[in-house]
Amino acid sequence: MRGRVSRRSVGLVAGLSLVLGACAHNAPSTDAAAADSELNSPPTDYKREILGAMHAYLNDPTGIRDAGIAEPALKTIGNTTRYVVCVRFNAKKRGGGYTGAKDIAAVFMVGRFDHFVDKAQEPCAGATYAPFPELQKLSR
Q1: How many CA within 13 A on the CB side of residue 135?
Q2: What's the rounded Cα separation, in Å, for the pair 103 and 132?
Q3: Predicted confidence (pLDDT) per residue in 76-112, tens digit
C-alpha cells in the first residue's frame, strides 16, 4: 500500500507543478516592465533638445512669437505611452506675416527627443504653458 501512496503523491506533485508552471508562464515579465520604464524615462534636457530640433522642423526659425512650453508629462501617443512636451508658438510664413498659434508635441523616448507630432490637440489638451523665450531667440 505504501507504494501506491507514493505514486499518487508523485502524480499529485507533478500535476501541481504543471498547473503552477503555467501560471508563472503567464505572469507579467519584470524584464518587460523594466524595459517600458527605461523607454519612458523622463527627459532632463528637453528644452535644449527641442530648440535643436526646431531648426530642422521650421523653414525659418527666426522671429518666432508667443512661444510657450509645458512640463514633460506621460501621455498616450497612438498606442504607446511616452513623455511628451507640448510647445506653442507663432512662426513666420514664407511670404511674410505669421501662421498663427500652433501647438506641437515633442515626443521623448529613453529620455531623449524622438519626434514631433503636429496635430497635438489631444496630447496637449489642458497643457499649462510657461513662457519659452529661448525659442523666440532662435537664429538660422
Answers
A1: 25
A2: 13
A3: 988 999 999 999 999 998 888 999 999 999 999 999 9
